[in-house]
Amino acid sequence: MYSKSAWITWERQPRNRSMADLFNAKYFEFSNNGNGIKRYLLCLKDTYFIFNSKSYSLIFVQNPSIILCFISVILSKIFTTKLVIDAHNAGVYPNEGKSKFLLAINNWILKRADLVLVTNRLLVDHLNKFDIKSEFIPDPLPSFPQINTEELSNGNYLFVVCSWSLDEPIDLYIEVARMLPEYVFKFSGNYKKYSDKIDFNTLPDNVVLLGFISEDEYVKTLANCLAVLDLTTRDDCLVCGAYESISLLKPVVVSDTVVNRELFHDSVCYSELNSASLINAIHASQENSLIKKVEIFREEYSIKITLLQQKICARLNYSIKCNEAN
């Protein structure tokens, strides 16, 4: 007999959907419930109803939110539900690891889950120091709606996938945009968060700030670009833009880190956090031979993800129906 599982998140993030599909879990996204305290109260209520329904023997939750994970630990004990926390980098190092108090609270929460999932081996090694049970599994490649190729043209732009967060080298992107006027640099995400750090009136003409765009528009922008840029200053972070690009067979430039090279090998282009390296990587992303490498990686990667999924299920002593596509 196969058990039923659920996946709960309080924010929209690509990994949540693809991981829920991989584990055949019913997906619950509580991300549009107002602002401030009202939003948290509504999210807490919705989360309680999922646990209280007693319909699921295994529940996955995303960290962040640390509040979601805290309440889920308590509810899992009350309703004797197996709990798995899928911890993104911010779910391992809240507030970029600057607060010892938050780190202690977060580790207390993670330790009380049946298992913590992270994206790479370095994060597993870190959690092992605190006797936190964990397994790593990178993001499954996302699946996108069918794109009407007639609506696409060969866009002469680079798509900078970012959320304008502290770990993203925004200043480097802009510096390189000034040095490569032949390319347009289109930035995703809420750039207004960065308004206290940069004067938008001084940006070069080839920088386009898209702001918030719909999911359909995001996918079309991604599918139509020359290459994707998605760098991070974190050494142990695997970025969503890389998986999305590979899924659509687009060249992508990522940070030159151990975790990226271990996972992606020669299917992506690597850049250090300086302008000369990023310019070289952008040029390398336009080589015709790269797409064939991306195709080979994409085929092999799905097998790898399925094996990691099976390992996790075995550790949880949990049986699920694997999607045939996996």
Descriptive overview:
This protein has 326 residues and is an alpha/beta fold. The protein folds into 2 domains: 5-137, Glycogen Phosphorylase B (Rossmann fold, 3-Layer(aba) Sandwich); 149-299, Glycogen Phosphorylase B (Rossmann fold). The protein has helices spanning 14-22, 36-52, 66-78, 89-92, 100-111, 121-128, 170-179, 215-224, 240-247, 258-264, 275-284, 289-316; strands spanning 5-9, 26-29, 58-63, 82-87, 115-118, 134-136, 157-160, 184-188, 207-211, 227-230, 252-255, 269-271. Strands 2-1-3-4-5-6 form a 6-stranded parallel sheet, sandwiched between helices. A 6-stranded parallel sheet has the order 9-8-7-10-11-12, sandwiched between helices. Helix 2 packs parallel to helix 3 and helix 7 crosses helix 11. The two termini are 20 Å apart. Residues 321-326 have low confidence and may be disordered.
What's this, in brief?
This protein is 42% helix and 16% strand. It is of the alpha/beta class and 326 residues long.
Give a quick set of tags describing it:
326 residues, alpha/beta, Rossmann fold, 12 helices, 16% strand, globular, disordered C terminus, Glycosyltransferase family 4 protein
